[in-house]
Design goal:
By secondary structure, this protein is of the alpha/beta class. It has 23 helices and 10 strands.
Protein backbone atom coordinates (compact mmCIF):
# COMPACT_ATOMS: atom_id res chain seq x y z
CA UNK A 1 0.00 0.00 0.00
CA UNK A 2 1.34 3.39 -1.01
CA UNK A 3 1.68 6.32 1.45
CA UNK A 4 -0.26 9.58 0.88
CA UNK A 5 -0.85 12.97 2.52
CA UNK A 6 -3.27 15.73 1.55
CA UNK A 7 -3.51 19.44 2.32
CA UNK A 8 -6.32 21.97 1.75
CA UNK A 9 -7.35 25.07 3.65
CA UNK A 10 -11.07 24.38 3.07
CA UNK A 11 -12.86 22.15 5.61
CA UNK A 12 -15.40 20.96 3.03
CA UNK A 13 -12.67 19.80 0.63
CA UNK A 14 -10.77 17.97 3.36
CA UNK A 15 -13.96 16.17 4.38
CA UNK A 16 -14.63 15.23 0.76
CA UNK A 17 -11.09 13.88 0.39
CA UNK A 18 -11.38 11.90 3.62
CA UNK A 19 -14.62 10.32 2.39
CA UNK A 20 -13.15 9.22 -0.94
CA UNK A 21 -9.81 8.01 0.47
CA UNK A 22 -11.51 5.96 3.17
CA UNK A 23 -12.73 3.51 0.53
CA UNK A 24 -9.47 3.40 -1.44
CA UNK A 25 -7.35 0.28 -0.88
CA UNK A 26 -4.27 1.46 -2.77
CA UNK A 27 -3.24 4.33 -0.50
CA UNK A 28 -2.69 4.72 3.22
CA UNK A 29 -3.27 8.26 4.51
CA UNK A 30 -0.37 9.38 6.69
CA UNK A 31 -1.73 12.87 7.42
CA UNK A 32 -4.23 15.64 6.64
CA UNK A 33 -3.19 19.32 6.87
CA UNK A 34 -4.88 22.74 6.72
CA UNK A 35 -1.98 24.50 5.00
CA UNK A 36 1.19 23.85 3.06
CA UNK A 37 3.52 24.77 5.89
CA UNK A 38 2.15 22.13 8.27
CA UNK A 39 2.22 19.54 5.51
CA UNK A 40 5.83 20.36 4.62
CA UNK A 41 6.96 20.20 8.25
CA UNK A 42 5.21 16.86 8.88
CA UNK A 43 6.51 15.28 5.67
CA UNK A 44 10.06 15.61 6.93
CA UNK A 45 9.40 12.78 9.40
CA UNK A 46 8.19 10.30 6.75
CA UNK A 47 10.72 7.90 5.30
CA UNK A 48 8.31 6.85 2.56
CA UNK A 49 5.92 9.18 0.83
CA UNK A 50 4.38 8.24 -2.50
CA UNK A 51 1.53 10.65 -3.22
CA UNK A 52 0.35 14.19 -2.42
CA UNK A 53 -3.09 15.76 -2.93
CA UNK A 54 -2.89 19.52 -2.44
CA UNK A 55 -4.86 22.68 -3.02
CA UNK A 56 -2.95 24.97 -5.33
CA UNK A 57 -3.39 28.12 -3.18
CA UNK A 58 -2.95 27.87 0.60
CA UNK A 59 -1.64 30.14 3.38
CA UNK A 60 2.12 30.23 4.16
CA UNK A 61 3.20 27.68 1.53
CA UNK A 62 1.30 27.18 -1.72
CA UNK A 63 0.44 23.78 -3.13
CA UNK A 64 2.88 24.20 -5.99
CA UNK A 65 5.72 25.12 -3.60
CA UNK A 66 4.80 22.18 -1.36
CA UNK A 67 4.88 19.76 -4.30
CA UNK A 68 8.13 21.14 -5.69
CA UNK A 69 9.89 20.94 -2.30
CA UNK A 70 8.70 17.40 -1.50
CA UNK A 71 9.78 16.12 -4.93
CA UNK A 72 13.35 17.07 -4.07
CA UNK A 73 13.41 14.44 -1.29
CA UNK A 74 10.83 12.08 -2.85
CA UNK A 75 11.53 12.22 -6.60
CA UNK A 76 8.87 9.60 -7.44
CA UNK A 77 6.15 11.53 -5.59
CA UNK A 78 2.82 11.55 -7.47
CA UNK A 79 1.02 14.91 -7.16
CA UNK A 80 -2.68 15.66 -7.65
CA UNK A 81 -3.46 19.41 -7.77
CA UNK A 82 -6.85 20.80 -6.65
CA UNK A 83 -7.85 24.30 -7.74
CA UNK A 84 -10.83 26.59 -7.61
CA UNK A 85 -9.23 28.81 -10.25
CA UNK A 86 -9.40 28.43 -14.00
CA UNK A 87 -5.94 29.80 -14.52
CA UNK A 88 -3.72 28.64 -17.40
CA UNK A 89 -0.53 29.69 -15.61
CA UNK A 90 -1.34 27.43 -12.64
CA UNK A 91 -2.09 24.55 -14.98
CA UNK A 92 1.20 25.08 -16.82
CA UNK A 93 3.17 24.95 -13.55
CA UNK A 94 1.36 21.72 -12.60
CA UNK A 95 2.33 20.22 -15.96
CA UNK A 96 5.96 21.24 -15.38
CA UNK A 97 5.87 19.34 -12.07
CA UNK A 98 4.62 16.24 -13.93
CA UNK A 99 1.45 16.18 -11.84
CA UNK A 100 -0.88 13.23 -12.21
CA UNK A 101 -3.98 15.44 -12.49
CA UNK A 102 -5.20 19.02 -12.22
CA UNK A 103 -8.71 18.81 -10.73
CA UNK A 104 -11.17 21.69 -10.45
CA UNK A 105 -13.35 22.33 -7.43
CA UNK A 106 -15.96 21.38 -6.48
CA UNK A 107 -14.33 17.96 -6.39
CA UNK A 108 -16.03 15.02 -8.12
CA UNK A 109 -15.47 11.52 -6.68
CA UNK A 110 -15.13 9.96 -10.14
CA UNK A 111 -12.39 12.41 -11.18
CA UNK A 112 -10.45 11.92 -7.92
CA UNK A 113 -10.75 8.12 -8.15
CA UNK A 114 -9.44 8.19 -11.72
CA UNK A 115 -6.53 10.40 -10.66
CA UNK A 116 -5.68 8.07 -7.77
CA UNK A 117 -5.77 5.06 -10.10
CA UNK A 118 -3.38 6.83 -12.48
CA UNK A 119 -1.04 7.63 -9.58
CA UNK A 120 -1.15 3.99 -8.49
CA UNK A 121 -0.33 2.73 -12.00
CA UNK A 122 2.63 5.09 -12.22
CA UNK A 123 3.94 3.92 -8.84
CA UNK A 124 3.47 0.27 -9.83
CA UNK A 125 5.50 0.86 -12.97
CA UNK A 126 8.27 2.59 -11.02
CA UNK A 127 8.34 -0.31 -8.53
CA UNK A 128 8.61 -2.85 -11.36
CA UNK A 129 11.48 -0.97 -12.97
CA UNK A 130 13.27 -0.76 -9.62
CA UNK A 131 12.75 -4.48 -9.01
CA UNK A 132 14.02 -5.32 -12.48
CA UNK A 133 17.06 -3.10 -11.98
CA UNK A 134 17.73 -4.64 -8.58
CA UNK A 135 17.32 -8.18 -9.94
CA UNK A 136 19.59 -7.37 -12.85
CA UNK A 137 22.19 -5.91 -10.51
CA UNK A 138 21.95 -8.97 -8.27
CA UNK A 139 22.41 -11.26 -11.27
CA UNK A 140 25.45 -9.28 -12.39
CA UNK A 141 26.85 -9.45 -8.86
CA UNK A 142 26.25 -13.21 -8.59
CA UNK A 143 27.82 -13.81 -12.01
CA UNK A 144 30.90 -11.75 -11.14
CA UNK A 145 31.26 -13.58 -7.81
CA UNK A 146 31.01 -16.95 -9.58
CA UNK A 147 33.59 -15.86 -12.16
CA UNK A 148 35.97 -14.69 -9.44
CA UNK A 149 35.51 -17.96 -7.58
CA UNK A 150 36.34 -19.93 -10.73
CA UNK A 151 39.34 -17.68 -11.40
CA UNK A 152 40.78 -18.11 -7.92
CA UNK A 153 40.17 -21.87 -7.86
CA UNK A 154 42.10 -22.13 -11.11
CA UNK A 155 44.77 -19.79 -9.78
CA UNK A 156 45.33 -22.08 -6.78
CA UNK A 157 46.36 -24.87 -9.17
CA UNK A 158 48.81 -22.86 -11.28
CA UNK A 159 52.53 -22.42 -10.98
CA UNK A 160 52.67 -19.69 -13.62
CA UNK A 161 49.99 -17.44 -15.14
CA UNK A 162 49.58 -16.94 -18.86
CA UNK A 163 49.08 -13.38 -20.18
CA UNK A 164 45.57 -14.33 -21.35
CA UNK A 165 44.52 -15.56 -17.88
CA UNK A 166 46.16 -12.54 -16.25
CA UNK A 167 44.02 -10.32 -18.46
CA UNK A 168 40.90 -12.22 -17.41
CA UNK A 169 41.78 -11.79 -13.72
CA UNK A 170 42.08 -8.06 -14.21
CA UNK A 171 38.80 -7.92 -16.17
CA UNK A 172 37.07 -9.71 -13.27
CA UNK A 173 38.52 -7.21 -10.80
CA UNK A 174 41.22 -9.48 -9.35
CA UNK A 175 44.28 -7.21 -9.51
CA UNK A 176 46.95 -9.10 -7.61
CA UNK A 177 49.84 -9.97 -9.89
CA UNK A 178 51.70 -6.72 -9.26
CA UNK A 179 51.11 -6.92 -5.51
CA UNK A 180 54.08 -6.56 -3.20
CA UNK A 181 52.79 -9.05 -0.62
CA UNK A 182 50.23 -11.89 -0.78
CA UNK A 183 48.98 -14.16 1.96
CA UNK A 184 46.65 -17.12 1.49
CA UNK A 185 44.38 -18.44 4.26
CA UNK A 186 42.16 -21.52 4.10
CA UNK A 187 39.27 -21.85 6.55
CA UNK A 188 38.10 -25.44 6.98
CA UNK A 189 35.59 -27.12 9.30
CA UNK A 190 37.15 -29.38 11.93
CA UNK A 191 34.38 -31.93 11.35
CA UNK A 192 34.45 -34.57 8.63
CA UNK A 193 32.94 -33.31 5.39
CA UNK A 194 30.23 -36.00 5.18
CA UNK A 195 28.89 -34.97 8.63
CA UNK A 196 28.45 -31.29 7.77
CA UNK A 197 24.99 -29.76 7.60
CA UNK A 198 24.49 -27.65 4.46
CA UNK A 199 22.56 -24.89 6.26
CA UNK A 200 25.18 -24.62 9.02
CA UNK A 201 27.94 -24.48 6.41
CA UNK A 202 26.16 -21.73 4.46
CA UNK A 203 25.64 -19.77 7.68
CA UNK A 204 29.33 -20.12 8.46
CA UNK A 205 30.32 -18.87 5.00
CA UNK A 206 28.03 -15.86 5.28
CA UNK A 207 29.33 -15.01 8.75
CA UNK A 208 32.91 -15.40 7.56
CA UNK A 209 32.36 -13.12 4.54
CA UNK A 210 30.83 -10.47 6.79
CA UNK A 211 33.50 -10.96 9.44
CA UNK A 212 36.34 -10.58 6.94
CA UNK A 213 34.88 -7.29 5.72
CA UNK A 214 34.48 -6.06 9.27
CA UNK A 215 37.93 -7.22 10.42
CA UNK A 216 40.00 -6.09 7.45
CA UNK A 217 37.76 -3.65 5.57
CA UNK A 218 39.79 -1.65 3.08
CA UNK A 219 42.97 -1.77 5.17
CA UNK A 220 43.92 -5.16 3.70
CA UNK A 221 42.09 -5.97 0.45
CA UNK A 222 41.11 -9.62 0.02
CA UNK A 223 39.39 -12.00 -2.39
CA UNK A 224 37.44 -15.09 -1.33
CA UNK A 225 36.84 -18.40 -3.12
CA UNK A 226 35.34 -21.75 -2.19
CA UNK A 227 37.39 -24.93 -2.68
CA UNK A 228 34.93 -27.73 -1.76
CA UNK A 229 33.55 -27.20 1.76
CA UNK A 230 36.37 -24.78 2.69
CA UNK A 231 36.72 -21.02 2.20
CA UNK A 232 39.91 -19.57 0.77
CA UNK A 233 40.97 -15.96 1.34
CA UNK A 234 43.73 -14.26 -0.65
CA UNK A 235 45.01 -11.13 1.11
CA UNK A 236 46.78 -8.38 -0.84
CA UNK A 237 48.99 -5.72 0.74
CA UNK A 238 51.53 -3.08 -0.41
CA UNK A 239 53.36 -3.47 2.92
CA UNK A 240 54.52 -6.53 4.90
CA UNK A 241 51.80 -8.31 6.86
CA UNK A 242 51.83 -7.96 10.64
CA UNK A 243 51.64 -11.56 11.76
CA UNK A 244 50.30 -10.82 15.25
CA UNK A 245 47.55 -8.65 13.81
CA UNK A 246 46.58 -11.27 11.23
CA UNK A 247 46.58 -14.00 13.88
CA UNK A 248 44.39 -12.06 16.33
CA UNK A 249 41.83 -11.18 13.65
CA UNK A 250 41.69 -14.73 12.31
CA UNK A 251 41.30 -16.14 15.85
CA UNK A 252 38.42 -13.73 16.43
CA UNK A 253 36.80 -14.90 13.19
CA UNK A 254 37.09 -18.55 14.26
CA UNK A 255 35.31 -17.77 17.53
CA UNK A 256 32.59 -15.86 15.64
CA UNK A 257 32.08 -18.77 13.26
CA UNK A 258 31.59 -21.24 16.07
CA UNK A 259 29.18 -18.96 17.90
CA UNK A 260 27.09 -18.29 14.78
CA UNK A 261 27.03 -21.71 13.12
CA UNK A 262 27.87 -24.15 15.89
CA UNK A 263 30.76 -25.46 13.78
CA UNK A 264 34.39 -25.48 14.84
CA UNK A 265 36.81 -24.21 12.17
CA UNK A 266 40.58 -24.00 11.84
CA UNK A 267 42.54 -21.88 9.38
CA UNK A 268 45.80 -22.70 7.63
CA UNK A 269 47.89 -19.67 6.65
CA UNK A 270 50.60 -19.71 3.99
CA UNK A 271 53.87 -17.83 4.11
CA UNK A 272 53.83 -14.24 2.85
CA UNK A 273 55.07 -14.04 -0.75
CA UNK A 274 55.12 -11.78 -3.80
CA UNK A 275 54.35 -12.65 -7.45
CA UNK A 276 57.43 -10.58 -8.30
CA UNK A 277 59.73 -13.06 -6.54
CA UNK A 278 61.53 -15.71 -8.54
CA UNK A 279 59.97 -19.14 -8.04
CA UNK A 280 56.67 -17.73 -6.79
CA UNK A 281 53.71 -20.13 -7.16
CA UNK A 282 50.05 -19.73 -6.20
CA UNK A 283 49.81 -23.51 -6.21
CA UNK A 284 52.54 -23.70 -3.60
CA UNK A 285 50.76 -21.19 -1.35
CA UNK A 286 47.55 -23.22 -1.54
CA UNK A 287 49.42 -26.46 -0.87
CA UNK A 288 51.07 -24.94 2.19
CA UNK A 289 47.71 -23.89 3.69
CA UNK A 290 46.44 -27.45 3.36
CA UNK A 291 49.71 -28.79 4.78
CA UNK A 292 49.33 -26.50 7.80
CA UNK A 293 45.72 -27.66 8.32
CA UNK A 294 46.97 -31.23 8.45
CA UNK A 295 48.48 -30.50 11.85
CA UNK A 296 45.02 -30.34 13.42
CA UNK A 297 45.26 -34.11 13.75
CA UNK A 298 48.15 -33.56 16.16
CA UNK A 299 47.52 -30.15 17.72
CA UNK A 300 43.74 -29.97 18.05
CA UNK A 301 40.83 -27.95 16.66
CA UNK A 302 39.88 -24.27 16.28
CA UNK A 303 43.45 -23.15 15.61
CA UNK A 304 45.24 -20.58 13.46
CA UNK A 305 48.07 -22.61 11.90
CA UNK A 306 50.87 -20.70 10.17
CA UNK A 307 52.96 -22.59 7.66
CA UNK A 308 56.06 -20.64 8.74
CA UNK A 309 55.73 -21.76 12.36
CA UNK A 310 55.30 -25.42 11.49
CA UNK A 311 57.93 -25.59 8.76
CA UNK A 312 60.63 -24.14 11.03
CA UNK A 313 60.14 -26.71 13.77
CA UNK A 314 62.54 -29.62 14.11
CA UNK A 315 61.31 -32.66 12.21
CA UNK A 316 59.77 -35.40 14.34
CA UNK A 317 59.66 -38.84 12.74
CA UNK A 318 58.10 -41.22 15.24
CA UNK A 319 58.37 -44.92 14.41
CA UNK A 320 56.12 -47.91 15.01
CA UNK A 321 57.45 -51.44 15.60
CA UNK A 322 56.90 -53.53 12.45
CA UNK A 323 55.58 -56.35 14.63
CA UNK A 324 52.65 -54.15 15.67
CA UNK A 325 51.46 -54.03 12.06
CA UNK A 326 51.92 -57.80 11.71
CA UNK A 327 49.95 -58.48 14.90
CA UNK A 328 47.07 -56.33 13.65
CA UNK A 329 47.13 -58.04 10.26
CA UNK A 330 47.09 -61.53 11.83
CA UNK A 331 44.23 -60.61 14.16
CA UNK A 332 42.09 -59.46 11.23
CA UNK A 333 43.11 -62.45 9.09
CA UNK A 334 41.92 -64.87 11.79
CA UNK A 335 38.67 -63.00 12.45
CA UNK A 336 39.63 -61.48 15.83
CA UNK A 337 37.85 -58.20 15.11
CA UNK A 338 37.73 -56.72 18.62
CA UNK A 339 41.35 -57.61 19.32
CA UNK A 340 42.42 -55.93 16.07
CA UNK A 341 40.43 -52.78 16.92
CA UNK A 342 42.01 -52.57 20.37
CA UNK A 343 45.50 -52.75 18.84
CA UNK A 344 44.62 -50.09 16.22
CA UNK A 345 43.21 -47.87 18.96
CA UNK A 346 46.45 -48.07 20.95
CA UNK A 347 48.52 -47.39 17.84
CA UNK A 348 46.46 -44.29 16.95
CA UNK A 349 46.80 -42.93 20.49
CA UNK A 350 50.56 -42.96 19.95
CA UNK A 351 50.51 -41.71 16.38
CA UNK A 352 48.34 -38.66 17.09
CA UNK A 353 50.96 -36.95 19.20
CA UNK A 354 53.62 -34.35 18.46
CA UNK A 355 56.26 -37.09 18.30
CA UNK A 356 54.68 -38.28 15.04
CA UNK A 357 53.74 -34.90 13.54
CA UNK A 358 55.98 -35.40 10.51
CA UNK A 359 55.42 -39.13 10.00
CA UNK A 360 51.86 -39.91 11.06
CA UNK A 361 50.62 -40.11 7.44
CA UNK A 362 53.38 -42.60 6.66
CA UNK A 363 52.30 -44.70 9.66
CA UNK A 364 48.64 -44.55 8.60
CA UNK A 365 49.59 -45.67 5.09
CA UNK A 366 51.53 -48.61 6.51
CA UNK A 367 48.57 -49.54 8.72
CA UNK A 368 46.26 -49.45 5.70
CA UNK A 369 48.61 -51.73 3.77
CA UNK A 370 48.75 -54.16 6.71
CA UNK A 371 44.95 -54.37 6.83
CA UNK A 372 44.66 -54.87 3.08
CA UNK A 373 47.17 -57.75 3.29
CA UNK A 374 44.83 -59.46 5.77
CA UNK A 375 41.97 -59.52 3.25
CA UNK A 376 41.79 -62.85 1.40
CA UNK A 377 39.51 -61.43 -1.34
CA UNK A 378 40.70 -57.93 -2.28
CA UNK A 379 38.61 -58.04 -5.46
CA UNK A 380 35.47 -58.24 -3.31
CA UNK A 381 36.66 -55.46 -0.99
CA UNK A 382 37.39 -53.14 -3.92
CA UNK A 383 34.22 -54.10 -5.74
CA UNK A 384 31.70 -54.12 -2.88
CA UNK A 385 33.19 -51.61 -0.41
CA UNK A 386 35.74 -49.08 -1.76
CA UNK A 387 38.46 -49.05 -4.36
CA UNK A 388 42.06 -48.64 -3.30
CA UNK A 389 42.04 -45.02 -4.49
CA UNK A 390 38.80 -44.35 -2.58
CA UNK A 391 40.33 -45.76 0.59
CA UNK A 392 43.38 -43.54 0.25
CA UNK A 393 41.26 -40.49 -0.54
CA UNK A 394 38.98 -41.10 2.46
CA UNK A 395 41.94 -41.67 4.78
CA UNK A 396 43.67 -38.44 3.72
CA UNK A 397 40.40 -36.52 4.13
CA UNK A 398 40.12 -37.39 7.83
CA UNK A 399 40.77 -34.38 10.06
CA UNK A 400 41.49 -35.95 13.43
CA UNK A 401 41.89 -39.06 15.53
CA UNK A 402 38.17 -39.84 15.87
CA UNK A 403 37.53 -39.75 12.13
CA UNK A 404 40.66 -41.82 11.44
CA UNK A 405 39.68 -44.37 14.10
CA UNK A 406 36.20 -44.72 12.59
CA UNK A 407 37.76 -45.20 9.13
CA UNK A 408 39.99 -48.07 10.27
CA UNK A 409 37.32 -49.69 12.48
CA UNK A 410 34.88 -49.75 9.54
CA UNK A 411 37.55 -51.22 7.27
CA UNK A 412 38.43 -53.93 9.81
CA UNK A 413 34.75 -54.91 10.16
CA UNK A 414 34.38 -55.09 6.38
CA UNK A 415 37.51 -57.21 5.88
CA UNK A 416 36.52 -59.63 8.67
CA UNK A 417 33.06 -60.01 7.12
CA UNK A 418 34.50 -60.63 3.64
CA UNK A 419 37.04 -63.14 4.94
CA UNK A 420 34.33 -64.98 6.85
CA UNK A 421 32.07 -65.07 3.82
CA UNK A 422 34.79 -66.37 1.52
CA UNK A 423 35.77 -69.05 4.02
CA UNK A 424 32.14 -70.06 4.48
CA UNK A 425 31.74 -70.46 0.74
CA UNK A 426 34.87 -72.63 0.67
CA UNK A 427 33.73 -74.73 3.63
CA UNK A 428 30.23 -75.14 2.22
CA UNK A 429 31.68 -76.23 -1.12
CA UNK A 430 33.90 -78.82 0.55
CA UNK A 431 31.02 -80.19 2.62
CA UNK A 432 28.83 -80.43 -0.48
CA UNK A 433 31.50 -82.44 -2.27
CA UNK A 434 31.78 -84.82 0.72
CA UNK A 435 28.03 -85.41 0.81
CA UNK A 436 27.94 -85.92 -2.95
CA UNK A 437 30.72 -88.50 -2.67
CA UNK A 438 28.76 -90.40 0.00
CA UNK A 439 25.60 -90.30 -2.11
CA UNK A 440 27.54 -91.73 -5.08
CA UNK A 441 29.34 -94.47 -3.14
CA UNK A 442 26.97 -95.45 -0.30
CA UNK A 443 26.64 -99.00 -1.75
CA UNK A 444 30.32 -99.61 -0.91
CA UNK A 445 30.33 -101.56 2.39
CA UNK A 446 33.86 -100.36 3.10
CA UNK A 447 33.15 -96.63 2.73
CA UNK A 448 34.89 -94.78 5.58
CA UNK A 449 35.99 -91.29 6.55
CA UNK A 450 39.52 -92.13 5.51
CA UNK A 451 38.29 -93.22 2.08
CA UNK A 452 36.36 -89.95 1.54
CA UNK A 453 39.29 -87.84 2.81
CA UNK A 454 41.76 -89.65 0.55
CA UNK A 455 39.57 -89.42 -2.55
CA UNK A 456 38.77 -85.70 -2.10
CA UNK A 457 42.20 -84.60 -0.94
CA UNK A 458 41.32 -83.61 2.63
CA UNK A 459 42.58 -84.80 5.98
CA UNK A 460 40.35 -87.06 8.02
CA UNK A 461 40.22 -84.53 10.85
CA UNK A 462 38.99 -81.84 8.38
CA UNK A 463 36.19 -84.20 7.22
CA UNK A 464 35.15 -84.85 10.82
CA UNK A 465 35.28 -81.10 11.59
CA UNK A 466 33.12 -80.12 8.60
CA UNK A 467 30.41 -82.65 9.41
CA UNK A 468 30.42 -81.44 13.00
CA UNK A 469 30.16 -77.80 11.84
CA UNK A 470 27.02 -78.72 9.90
CA UNK A 471 25.43 -80.40 12.90
CA UNK A 472 25.81 -83.99 11.82
CA UNK A 473 28.46 -86.73 11.38
CA UNK A 474 29.86 -88.90 8.63
CA UNK A 475 28.08 -92.00 10.02
CA UNK A 476 24.69 -90.25 10.31
CA UNK A 477 24.92 -88.91 6.77
CA UNK A 478 25.91 -92.29 5.33
CA UNK A 479 23.23 -94.18 7.31
CA UNK A 480 20.52 -91.70 6.27
CA UNK A 481 21.37 -92.18 2.59
CA UNK A 482 21.43 -95.99 2.89
CA UNK A 483 18.10 -96.07 4.73
CA UNK A 484 16.37 -93.79 2.20
CA UNK A 485 17.57 -96.01 -0.66
CA UNK A 486 16.49 -99.17 1.23
CA UNK A 487 12.92 -97.82 1.54
CA UNK A 488 12.75 -97.37 -2.21
CA UNK A 489 14.04 -100.91 -2.85
CA UNK A 490 11.61 -102.48 -0.34
CA UNK A 491 8.74 -101.16 -2.45
CA UNK A 492 9.66 -103.80 -5.03
CA UNK A 493 8.26 -107.16 -3.70
CA UNK A 494 10.43 -109.16 -6.09
CA UNK A 495 13.63 -108.08 -4.34
CA UNK A 496 14.95 -110.29 -1.59
CA UNK A 497 16.20 -108.87 1.72
CA UNK A 498 19.81 -110.00 1.18
CA UNK A 499 19.81 -108.37 -2.24
CA UNK A 500 18.55 -105.08 -0.84
CA UNK A 501 21.09 -105.13 1.99
CA UNK A 502 23.93 -105.63 -0.48
CA UNK A 503 22.71 -102.84 -2.75
CA UNK A 504 22.76 -100.30 0.10
CA UNK A 505 26.19 -101.26 1.44
CA UNK A 506 25.49 -104.01 4.02
CA UNK A 507 27.21 -107.38 3.57
CA UNK A 508 25.20 -108.95 6.45
CA UNK A 509 21.39 -108.84 5.90
CA UNK A 510 20.78 -109.36 9.61
CA UNK A 511 22.90 -106.29 10.45
CA UNK A 512 20.99 -104.36 7.77
CA UNK A 513 17.69 -105.38 9.38
CA UNK A 514 18.99 -104.27 12.79
CA UNK A 515 20.08 -100.86 11.45
CA UNK A 516 16.80 -100.39 9.56
CA UNK A 517 14.67 -101.13 12.64
CA UNK A 518 16.81 -98.82 14.76
CA UNK A 519 16.42 -96.01 12.18
CA UNK A 520 12.67 -96.38 11.37
CA UNK A 521 11.33 -98.18 14.48
CA UNK A 522 10.22 -101.24 12.46
CA UNK A 523 11.86 -104.11 10.62
CA UNK A 524 12.23 -104.16 6.82
CA UNK A 525 9.55 -106.87 6.57
CA UNK A 526 7.10 -104.82 8.68
CA UNK A 527 7.78 -101.79 6.47
CA UNK A 528 7.19 -103.87 3.30
CA UNK A 529 3.86 -105.18 4.63
CA UNK A 530 2.69 -101.59 5.15
Amino acid sequence: MYKLIYADDEEATRSRLASVLKDNSDFEVLGCYENGYDALEAAGSFNDLDALITDIKMPFVSGLELAKTLKETHPLLQVIILSGYDDFDYAKQAIDLDCVAYLSKPLLKSELSAALAKARDRLDQFAKVQQDDQASEERRGAFLKAERNTDLLRLSTLKEISPKFLSKLQTDGIVIHDADFLLLALFDSDREEDTLNYDSLETARFVLEQGLTSAFGSSIPFFTFEPSSSLGVLFVSPTPFEKDLIESKLAFLLASLKRASGLSFSVGVSESASPKEEGFSYRKLFRHTKWALGFRAIMGDELVLFYDDLALQQKNFGKVDENDFKDISYAVLYGKEEEAKEMVDRLLDNVFSLRFKDSYLLVLNTLLDALLKSCIALDQLYGQYKTHMDLLSDLYAKKGKEGTRAFFFDLIAEIVAINSGVRSIGIDGAFTRMVQYIESHYENPNLTVDEVAKRLGYSSSYVFALFKKHGTSFTKTLTKKRMEEAKLLLADPSKKMAEIASQVGYEDPYYFSHCFKKYFGMSPLEYRKQ
